[in-house]
Amino acid sequence: MAFLKRLLLGEQGLLVIFVIAFAVVSVFVPSFLTERNMLGLFQSVVTIGIVSCTMMFCLASRDFDLSVGSIVAFTGMVAVMASNASGSIVIGLIAALACGTFVGFVNGAIIAKLKINALITTLATMQIVRGLALISSDGRAVGINDPGFYQLALSRFIGIPTPIWIMVALFCVFGFVLNRSVFGRNTLAIGGNPEASRLAGVNVDGMRIWIFTIQGLVCAVAGILLASRITSGQPNAATGLELSAISACVLGGVSLAGGRAAMTGVIVGVLILGIAENAMNLLNIQAFYQYLVRGLILLLAVLLDNVRSTGLGRK
Amino acid sequence: MADFLSFSHISKTYPGVKALSDVSFGVGKGSVHGLIGENGAGKSTLIRILSGDTGADDGEISVDGVAQHFGSTRDAFAAGVVVVHQELQLVPELTVAENLRLGRFPNRAGVIDFRSLKDEVNRRLKEIGLSVDADTKVSRLSLGERQMIEIAKAIMLDARVIALDEPTSSLSSQESEVLFQLIGELRASGKVIIYISHRLDEIFRLCDGCTVLRDGKLAAHHPAMADVTRESLVAEMVGREISDIWGWRGRPAGEVRLKVEVMSGAKLPRPIDFEARAGEIVGFFGLVGSGRSELMRLVYGADPRRSGKVSIDGVESSGANPRRSIREGLVLCSEDRKFDGIVQGLSVAENIVISARRHFSPFGLLSLRREADTAADFIKQLRIRTPSAKQDIVNLSGGNQQKVLLARWLAESGVKVLIVDEPTRGIDVGAKAEIYELLYHLAEKGLAIVVVSSELPEVMGISDRVIVMCEGRIAARYERAEFNEHAILASALPDRTAGEPNKKAS
Q: Is the pLDDT of residue B331 over 50?
């Protein structure tokens, strides 16, 4: 019993629970543990997974980004429209990445330089950018002209679709950045105590701008892949993505008060959300219940985290 | 007479640290009892248990013969036990009145009765002798005034036991006098006061008895102060004799390293000039609110300047922000360790290398080995007491946190000017001596050191030169040969009646 307690409440408690949940679902849900379903599962979490990488940095530095869903929709739109207009996929991609980066930069600059609360700033840009996506498309889906664009999502490398590779690569890159770079450590320091970090010589404003700019860029990557998968630019795509990404991060032990984050935790958080959705689809449970279950999972995870930290005598 | 408040066999263990083991003592009604000990001796833990903030693993507290099991601070309040913490627990954006009655607002059906709130608070403040208006926002008060508000809060809770944790650490001497008077009145009214302080003169002046903790154990319990001497207390605290705590030694001063000209800012409108030489320790003394800390923050570039120029080694500094100042060799250890110093949630090692790591992080990639080595090196060199370099810094005692903050700047190789604001606030005798020794050592290496302190003996004890500030300007300057306690204190006191200029030496 003591062993079980230590296992569940230890640093890797979430991972243990994930493994148990995975095993249970594999046994009880038919056709869950098949190659086809696994690839489907991973593909379904690509957008959340990619956005969660940078959302983690945002939360770890005690900030918030609500505009990610809108940026994903908008950049997907831009990628499709620009490549349709120019006849070049490359130009479309560059335009989308540039737009995402720009929106992120604007977020960061307003938050860092004009000292406006991140929640308010991104609440505003979330609506502005969604508005831009709707205006530019007149509220309708825009189909892709060049079938080459589909290949982004359809192409495979060693049997695994490219988007999954990109997500895994981003997990590795941002995990490395968080743990092994000055940027990552400074992110945690800012989250832990912004004023002390500033007085210790950390460029807090600069860091904030970078974090949001990279967030914008990464959202653009997610937006392009999403557009390619759904074969069109959809102005209403990725609604609610911001909350899913934040949920995944919180599930993964990222503290909303800043200063605490781990890439492995976020990956597990993303997968837990993915598995829950996937298993419910396989069991033919109505989609409406999925909201309920996701909320409950989030609550349970946070409670567990709370029990864990008080159990260890930390405050 | 039976003890009104008694601790019996209190033990408490934190991960990696045995904070208290088997501590028992009692205090009688209507008395002031001192609680002393070095940092990490277990005073704070004992107080946290008394306040209901945390539970003891073993043992119990009883008040007026009734055993208490505090599950929260509310339980402690209900039993009449109130702790006034060193780190003040006020809500800055609320008014004095609101803070004093937080959680217990006078109301009618949930609507706060502001008039009766204000009247009551103003009356109580007057009784206590505090000249603060109930409608003032706490964020506009000085640290000293906030401390008094905390004590007023305890009194308004009708506490029977009041524990004061380092109450005078941020008070000016006048404010301390007001506090001492208040403590006398509380004693006369039959309350039990637990008085925690590093200032032994206060213990002797105020306390009827005292208890010494060392390494989580009871080192001595004195029901009366009759046969207790300063030396014996210090010996009980540290387990060894400390003769001259300052240990000042002279050293030649070199060229001017730091030159500050016409420095002014929002909170310090009148321009100020001063300088510090290589190998010199310049002490800044002044009462709370005299503008010492504000001046240092301007020099460091932590706050925006209105005017002012800083030169280091004759070269004008471009540093209008902390990052540039650090790169040019000027660093500041802030007065408020909790808010401006330590980065909570990060380890001791991370807190040490946060700034210096840029020297050994090519392309922004960390060198984990160099970081671990640097941290281990300073933990050993400064004798930072921590179970491991990976320990979260919030778990360290104040003195050890201060050493970590000094290590942060020592790890920066190119430091030329070190400004330390209240280097020993809330720090015990043993650690103080170590910090002074470190400052002398750094001065001998040629750094210019500026020490800001509100403790006159400290300023006089360690400085080569003292600059006195009063109401946002420099009131006087003294060379070590001219140091005189009365003169320095006199020039620090605001003198509104005489209107004649204060002494302006050298």
A: yes
Chain A residues touching B323 at Cβ < 8 A: 201-203
Report pLDDT digits (tens) over B277-322: 999 999 999 877 788 999 999 999 999 999 999 999 999 988 689 9
What is the H or E stretch that residue B67 is in? strand B66-68
B367 dihedral zone (left: phi>0; alpha: psi -120 to 50; beta): beta
Give whole-number Cα distances, A30 to A24, A280, B106, B255, B338, in Å: 11, 11, 62, 82, 55
**Residue A169 lies inside a defined structural domain of this protein:** yes
In a domain, A10, yes or no: no
Residue B344 near chain A (CB below 8 Å): yes
How does the average pLDDT of chain A come out, rounded?
90
Task: List the structure tokens of B465.
Answer: 């030169």
CA distance B290 to B307: 19
Model confidence pLDDT, tens digit, residues B355-409: 998 888 888 888 889 999 999 999 998 888 888 999 989 888 878 888 999 999 9
Neighbours of A288 (CB within 10 A): 7
Q: Which of A179-193, B144-158, B212-226 has the lowest mean pLDDT?
A: B144-158
Name the strand (E) or helix (H) holding B381: helix B368-381
Tens-digit pLDDT profile for residues B364-374: 888 889 999 99
User: What's the CA gap between A237 and A142, in Å, rounded?
Assistant: 12
DSSP notation for B102-170: TT---EETTEE-HHHHHHHHHHHHHHHT----TTSBGGGS-HHHHHHHHHHHHHHTT-SEEEEESTTTT
Among B367, B372, B439, residue whose Cα is nearest residue B403: B439
Identify which of A118, A73, A79 has the alpha carbon closest to the alpha carbon of residue A97. A79
Identify whether A26 is part of a domain.
no
Structural domains of chain B, ranges and CATH numbers in brackets: 5-238 (3.40.50.300), 257-329+419-435+445-506 (3.40.50.300), 338-413 (no CATH)
Q: How many domains does chain A have?
A: 1
Q: Is the ipTM of this complex over 0.90?
A: no
Which of B17, B293, B344, B357 to mutate to probe the A interface, most A CBs <10 Å? B344
CATH code of the domain covering residue A225: 1.10.3470
**Chain A residues with at least one Cβ partner in B under 8 Å:** 180-183, 185-186, 188-189, 191-193, 195-203, 255, 258-260, 312-315
